[in-house]
Amino acid sequence: MQPTRSNSPELNGPPRRLILRSPVLWTAAAGWLTVNVLVLAVADDRLPFDWPSTTESTPGGRLVEANVALAEVLLLIGVTVLLTRRRTRPDVAARAPERSVALTETLLLLAYGASGLALGFALARSLGWHPFGFHLAGTLYGTHDHVGAAEAVTWALYNLVVYAVLPLLFFRRRYSAEQLNLRSSDRRADALLIGVVLVVESAVQFAVLRPELFDLGGRQLLLGVPATFALYFAGTVLPAMVFLYAILLPRLLKLTGSTVATVVLGGLAYTVLHLWDAWTLFTTPGDALLSVSFLLLTYFAPGMMKSVLTLRTGNAWVHVWAYHAFAPHTLADTPHVVRIFRI
C-alpha cells in the first residue's frame, strides 16, 4: 500500500517559511529562554541534585550543556528533514480517528498515564525504592543511592506492562499496525535515516559525554551490554514508543492540525513521563522549580526529536533504533547496570 501524502501544509508546503511563522515555535523558544533565566535566578552556586556522572554541577555550566544538547537535537532534526525531503510522507493524522473520538482517547490516555505515574510512585515507595518513572534511578546522571537488581527488574516490568503491553492490547484491537505507526512504508529509507542519526548521536555521546563504557572489562562488556539493552528496552524504550509515539502522537496531530504543535507537545509529554527521576527534589519551592526546569532542559528536546522522526516517517520504530535503545541508553548506562547486577 502506498502511503497517503499528508494534508498538513507544514509537511508538504515550504517548510522553513511556515515553521518560522508558527506561534507555537516562538512560544516554545520563549519558554526555553524563560527556563534558562529562572535557573540562574533561583539556583545557588551549586545545584542541589545528586548527579555524580555529570561533568558540571554549577548552574551556568549545566545550562551551557543543556543548550549545547538542544543545538545537537536541532542539528539532528535538520538532518532528518534533509534525508526525508523526497519521501512521500504518510498522513499520520489520518491514522487517528475522527476528532471527537481522538479527543476522548487523548484525554483517557493522559489520565491513564498520570495514573500510571501515581501508582508507580506509591508502589515503589511502599517497597522502599525510588519512584517508578520512565528512567531507572541513576540513569544518565548516576546516583550515590544503592539501586538493587530487584528494583531494576521490577521497574522495567512495571513500565513494560503499564505503558506498552496494556495500551497496545487495547488499541491493537481497534486499529491496524499502520494506524499505530508500527509498520514501515519505506524500509530502505528508514534504515538509512536510522543509520545516519545513530552514527551522529553516538559520535556526540563519545565526544561530549565521554561514556565509561570502554572502561569496563571484557566480561563486563560481554554481559553488561546485552543486559543494559534488554533492561532499558523493556523499561523505557518500548513504553515510550507504544504509549507516546504509536498511540498518542497521531491523536495530537489530529487535534492540533499542526506539525509544530505536535512536536512540541510530544516533547512536553516525554518530559512529564520522567517526573519521578531519582535526582528530582520537591521538598522546597525552589528545589521543585529547579527540578521541573532541568526535567525540561533534559528531556524536552529529545522528546521533540523522537516526534520528528515518527512524523517524518510514519514509523514509531525509527526513533527506537536511531535515537533511544543504543544511544544514549546502552552507551551511557551499561556501567550503571554492571554495578546494579554486580557483573
TrEMBL record:
<feature type="transmembrane region" description="Helical">
    <location>
        <begin position="229"/>
        <end position="248"/>
    </location>
</feature>
<protein>
    <submittedName>
        <fullName>Uncharacterized protein</fullName>
    </submittedName>
</protein>
<keyword id="KW-0812">Transmembrane</keyword>
<feature type="transmembrane region" description="Helical">
    <location>
        <begin position="255"/>
        <end position="276"/>
    </location>
</feature>
<keyword id="KW-1133">Transmembrane helix</keyword>
<keyword id="KW-0472">Membrane</keyword>
<feature type="transmembrane region" description="Helical">
    <location>
        <begin position="106"/>
        <end position="132"/>
    </location>
</feature>
<feature type="transmembrane region" description="Helical">
    <location>
        <begin position="191"/>
        <end position="209"/>
    </location>
</feature>
<feature type="transmembrane region" description="Helical">
    <location>
        <begin position="63"/>
        <end position="85"/>
    </location>
</feature>
<feature type="transmembrane region" description="Helical">
    <location>
        <begin position="24"/>
        <end position="43"/>
    </location>
</feature>
<feature type="transmembrane region" description="Helical">
    <location>
        <begin position="288"/>
        <end position="305"/>
    </location>
</feature>
<feature type="transmembrane region" description="Helical">
    <location>
        <begin position="152"/>
        <end position="171"/>
    </location>
</feature>
